[in-house]
Amino acid sequence: MRLNLRRDTGVSMDTRARALAPGGNSTAIGASANSAVLGIVAGNGLSVSCLEFLTVRTFVLFVTVAIGTAFLRLNFVIP
Asked: What is the distance between the alpha carbons of residues 60 and 48, in angstroms, rounded to a whole number?
């Protein structure tokens, strides 16, 4: 099955994935899982600064975007 979501909004899924990933993956408040992990860490007496969090999560961001892009290209671009 091939979805054509571009005609509905004029924005491709590839662009959407790349636009939404940084907010959810690299910021502490971008996703609820990030906030939960920081709460657990704080509950155990440790602290993580925003810069430390951003440094680690930037790598995760690139991996997530690469996997998402590959998935979208394989499922929606290649017939």
From this structure: 17
Sign of CA dihedral 16, 72, 25, 31: positive
The candidate with the shortest Cα–Cα distance to 22, out of 69, 56, 65, 52, is 65
Q: What is the pLDDT along the chain (79 residues), one digit of tens a residue?
A: 555 555 566 677 777 767 776 777 777 787 788 888 889 999 999 988 888 888 888 888 888 888 888 887 888 776 6
Query: Residue 1: how many CB atoms within 10 A of its CB?
Result: 4
Is 67 part of any domain? yes
Number of structural domains the chain divides into: 1
Query: In Å, what is the CA distance from 26 to each residue of 46, 65, 75?
Result: 20, 12, 26
Note if the pTM is more than 0.85.
no
Would 17 be classed as within a structural domain? yes
Domain containing residue 20? 12-77
